[in-house]
Amino acid sequence: MLDKYRYESFRSDQFCDPSDPSPCPDKSIVVPTDWTQDSLFQIGTRLKATEEETGHYAGGPVTHSGAVCPHCQNGLSHILDFDLSREDVPIVVRRTFSHLNRLPIYYCALCPPGTQYRVLSDDVIEPLLSTHPGYDYRNDISEETPFRHVGGLIETPRSSISLDPIPEGIARATLDAWNNRCLIRPKPETDQMKSAFEWWGVKGVLDLPKSQFAGVPVFPQGYWSTCCNNPQCPLAYHETLVKLESGEDEERSRRQSFVYATYEVVPALQETWRAIRAEICWCCLAISVGYECC
Fold this sequence. Notes:
The chain is of the alpha+beta class. It is 13% helix and 24% strand. The longest helix has 13 residues, at 168-180. It is globular.
């Protein structure tokens, strides 16, 4: 069965309540300089498993109250956890989440539409609906669901991960290669693309994607969402225009792909050969976590 409501969860116009006299609270909003596409090319880091103590982890116990899926009422799984006091965390992330010491990535092991939440403090998260309130995961389990073999809360042993800065030139060449693969007639690989493959330690674009935290590119496989799923956020509405400080339209900088994690850093994903991708809304700091092929 296809994950019907997973696809619908990315249609954020469903959150516009017709009974609301002002469904679009802000007609336009300026994207912070930190979160423009050009800025994001400078802050990406590669995620890798390591035996060294880094302060960043994959797996481990739940550390926040409120970590319960609002759809199925099961506990969320703690997928990744980042120490925001560390200087290897991009400064943009540290500034954006300055009210936190740690940034957790949670995911519901049962519900294909994914997991939405806001991190209110170092011990509390606020879960948000990912799709309509009547959603029942028991009618929507496909063979792609990454933790389908678990049947509930999954807690994997905590392990260390490292954050290695991605040079801006490598990031831009990687994105060029990633987009080039989608063309009907792909262009020949450039020297810059080949250098990027060498940096990632792969033979070519088909050996990507790799795990990444922040920056561009975070390797999307599809289902790119342009709107926030938090109905209280201005970016939940298509009518809200996103602009640069110069006044130019900047629709690319709505919700940003933020984390891409494969079995390299989350071994529990290897059985179904899926990846976890998190997106962030820079306006309300809602985090949206879902799965995709890797």
